[in-house]
Design goal:
Layout: H1 12-28, E1 37-42, H2 48-59, E2 63-67, H3 69-73, H4 87-97, E3 100-104, H5 108-117, E4 122-124, H6 132-145, E5 153-157, H7 162-173, E6 177-181, H8 190-203, E7 206-209, H9 213-216, E8 222-225, H10 237-244, H11 251-254, E9 262-265, H12 277-280, H13 287-306, H14 309-312, H15 317-327
Parallel strand pairs: 1-2, 1-3, 3-4, 5-6, 5-8, 6-7, 8-9
Helix pairs in contact: 1-13, 2-13, 6-7, 6-13, 7-8
Amino acid sequence: MKHLLTIGELDPSQVQGILDLSVQLQEQSPQILQGKNVAFVFEKPSLRTKVGAEVAINHLGGNIVDIDGDLMFSSSKAVPFSFRESLFDAMKNVSQWCDAIFARVFSHSTLEKMKEYGDIPVVNALCDLHHPMQALADILTIQQKFEKGQKVSLTFVGDANNVAHSLTEVMLYFGHHVTFSGPEQYGWDEEKIEYFSQLSTKYGGSFTINNDPKEAVAKADVLYTDTFISMGQEHMYEDKIKHFEDYQVNADLFSLTKENAGFMHCLPAHRGIEVTDDVIDHENSWVYQQAKNRMIVSKGAFTALLYPTLLTGEDTLNSLETKFQMIT
């Protein structure tokens, strides 16, 4: 594990290794990242992703270096000499100073270039196609809420977006059952459907599509939704809202799920649009536990990238701490 750009680049054992390490680090909080510097560069706004990861790295003794997005990504401007320097040069420079980089970008292709140009681990803080850090927090929440080994049925109601993609991947990795419900105009293409079907076959779960939200939630242990209007889609508001009006998660829809089903949302939530107050504030709403887990899984993800021997079993936290103490 050299980078964390997508869930699909990991395997289930690596995902579980990150989760187990995250919980261990949360309980012990060793100064395992002392002397490590992680660069943060964000093209889009962020609360949970940015602050959760900052707190996680601080807890473990590491340092955060905030970089203005215009300094890293100005090369996207088309007019000659209107940008400071190429992304290639920027990554080569940051690689001289920092141990990893955490980037939130508009296009996944930017992350691929960062990985190619740099010499340090690149972590995806969200792009147009994937949100792996959210998926790690979500699957940790599922594991906290259900018995070990229990197969969970989750229904995602809404847009086939980056959050839904990474969530579906990680749920299927552990043999869970995922149902997607949303308007056809904003659903999955055939390539993604085939990919999810392959994951289902490989790991023993299932992936189904039911465009009737009332039918889709009937067997749900968990009901999940996200904003209908992702960042950068504000100009599509009128058209998307028209298509998604039947997919609002409200008390009536939530009542059709299994008894004691949970509600999940990656946040930020647009109350009154994709979800109503009586659902997001329900006693079975787990949204703030998800938010806390964003910080917890950041501990495991960054530590695993900076100390990859922890996931291979060649080292333990105790052995690394002993080595660190001997060096210092």
